Amino acid sequence: MMLCTMPTMHKSSTILKVMHRAASTLVSGGQLMQKKSDDTVITFAKRTAMGRAKKGQLKDVPVDELLHALFKATLEKTKLNPSSIDDICVGTDIRAPPLDCPQVWRHKETKTGKGTCHPPSPLYVSRAAALAAGIPDSVPISTVNRLCSSGLMAIRNIAHSIRAGEISLGVAVGVESMSLNPRPTPAIVEAVSENRRAHNCIQPMGWTSEMLAQAYNISRQKQDEYALISHARAAKAVAEGVFSEEILPIEIRGTVISADDTVRPNVSAEGLAALKPSFPEWGEASTTAGNASGVGDGAALCVVTTRARAEAEGYDVLAKFVGTAIVGVEPRYMGIAPIYAIPKALAQAGLDMEDIDVYEINEAFASQFAYCVEQLDIPINKINPNGGSIALTHPLGMTGVRQVVTGLEELRRRNGNLLCTSMCIGSGMGAAGIFVNERRL
Question: Which domain of life is it from (predicted)?
Fold first, then answer.
């Protein structure tokens, strides 16, 4: 039997010190707050309402229709001249189609004479949606897939292109229809699968949750406690109309969609404790439908440009993009990645943990979220103040942009300075990003 050695973990203060020593170029916190003409800034950040996969308001809406509606609503709201867009990047995890192959291309002729189904290409789908929304064919588009961080990678790609001087205004999008594009089990050849870590990196995410909970002694009770915080905060946010400030209403088939249908009110500790395990075949079987992220549909968008162009064209500046960090970890414990990604991003920016006013850390599972929070030693009142993916849902491609949209709105309400957003990524990776609030009271 092959033994698995658990990674040695360190408290965030130790990791941060190492990262500070390793960083070749550090920018002090004071310099981050300075405004320069070549800053990369966000002038618009909104999301659609989200829907429960297979059951919610977007369950029958394919990605192209969702993107089309979001592009149209954005152009109408911002009055942005679509010809002024230099590039668009769409983060998405569009995967293989269901067995009955709806919304996909079919080859009519094959060697066997039978039609075969192929997954929709995210690039073709995104390009078509942009053109239909009135964006001219002179505007190029690309797609990026780094699973749960795809949306953040879209922001990163546009921001880096701006910093390189290749473009001066771009649109970053995160989108996902988990209803119509469910995740299949990846397949690899035997020669690759014989490597333990290669084998582990394609295992279901529920398996990684159970492996982490077992390895680091994250009890079912603790997972439910963290899940309850998420559910309670999200329910409170809905009741107070908090999310209406970040949601851009879109029209789909004559119906205006403007509120999430994913948040479950009145979730209780007793109710969470009564739920059956979702993965009884693995580990301690402590992951449930109540303490794991929901499966859902939705899209989010940011307009990114230079400060000079924003000022010249009269755009409101919401935030400044500081930078991102990407890390890899052992696939078996995929969920621990924010413990490494966050300190790396902070060190690159010359920041300490306490400098951040709001953290948006994705709640893929309560097992990994609880462990990350406690290892990073961040006050819980700074993390996901309005709930996270356990309560809100986690449309994979959307989340990386959604967390930025949500975090920037919370920064504005708190009159805070800095947002750090982070997530673990399937196959054993993690990402984090830093943003400066510019809507000061």
Answer: Eukaryota
